[in-house]
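Raw record, unedited: Alpha/beta fold hydrolase
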Amino acid sequence: MSDSFDVLWLSASSVLQRFDRPLVQYLSRHLRIAHWEYHQSQDEGSSIDQAVELLYEFLEDCDRSVHLAGHGMGGAVALSFARRYPQKVRSLTLLAVASQPANTWHAHYYFQRQLFSISREQILASSARSLFGNQPPHTAKKLIAALDKDLEQSPTQHSLFKLVYLPKGGVSMPMMICGSKTDPIVNSPALHDWMNWFKPEDKLWECSQGYHFFHYFYPQEVGEQILSFWERHDLHLVEASALSFSASKS
């Protein structure tokens, strides 16, 4: 199965994975990318461990390691998987994932609910502005609805009663950390803290703007950086990228 793709993009939210599409589409012009999405029914409990085990079932029959990538909670799942099954992962690319991987936008939402006596709707509206910047009213309304649904579907174990933390630290395979200088959720200090566990082959890169979903607003700029990282650690990808470029020129 692994011969059918070079990179596996992870998504932990069916409602937010639309914001991954511009970047995935850009990358797929150069490499073979598969998309894996975590689905949770209303009767299932939230669990990153469950997401990791489902991902292992998907990759169990792969005959070679793959490049894993993900944004936000999808990146947190990728990180947990890479630590548990390092033999399955060739490199790890994390977008908007803090050095404390559980510090997602969900954690910020629940922290505000604990701290302030304001409604769920008011905090979701504030979260939408933080994650996407100021948007027209009709767009903001759709974003609020998407965030509201993501709170129910995400494998995060945060709640009004307790914020959960995940182990900090690095991984054994090459790792790239991407973020945005205007992201209030995973800010520059949270990104640069990763360097405490960096190996010589690891890379940190920040987009100059774009908020939390910078890869949606600047897919080509982000994609060029990621492609460069992957190609540096995989000769097979260099050859595949060159073939793709030749085909597009002919």
